[in-house]
């Protein structure tokens, strides 16, 4: 039987301490492949640090996690290899001066350069271009971004995109590498109630298709496995997210109804 595409997640007393104190600690939860995991909490509660640690972009300092069978903090590079970031401020932001087409072409070139086999690199140029186009089209379709609906189609600048459109573009770029784990920061930031529902429907569809989705938010949907964070008492929280104290972490995980 074929193994599930998504990455299973589990943490045990997972934590990260930096120069200004604990970013998060005592985080414990388990999620099977293809789960929709919502990291819920206010800004400054360590949500982003937890997301980056679980995708191999930050090194934890306490406990451990297993992501897709790889143990953290030891196997950071391996986890980075099969995880992808959607929008994360300061880490994987869209360039507002570039067009949608330029972002897509750039990501396709990077993917071919760093992810492609030698055999694929030696294929005829027209064949490589067709493969890149198919990859882009599939990612756009999975993210629900119809270029024809944009003000200038694929020539639309990122600065002219609505918030939900920008989210879909970021997810499209991440999906081009067919990740087992997709991480999205600030999922519901500056979205209307209607657009928030559409954003969650997108992530729900991706998880139903087998990709594990880890989404930071201020309010989680009822059907997500929810990990709740809040600033640790008595800590000097930095301007970015810093997270959960041990006294709250033991009870921050809940499983939704679906």
UniProtKB/TrEMBL annotation:
Cellular component, GO annotation: plasma membrane
Keywords noted in UniProt: ATP-binding, Nucleotide-binding
Lineage, top-rank taxon, reads: Bacteria
Q: Which GO terms describe its molecular function?
A: ATP binding; ATP hydrolysis activity; transmembrane transporter activity
Keyword Transmembrane helix on this protein?
A: no
Q: Report residue spans for region: Disordered.
A: 225-258
ABC transporter domain location is 9-255
Which residue stretches, if any, does this entry annotate as coiled coil? none
Q: Which Gene3D superfamilies match?
A: P-loop containing nucleotide triphosphate hydrolases
Query: Which protein are we looking at?
Result: ABC transporter ATP-binding protein
Native source organism of the sequence: Streptomyces pratensis (strain ATCC 33331 / IAF-45CD)
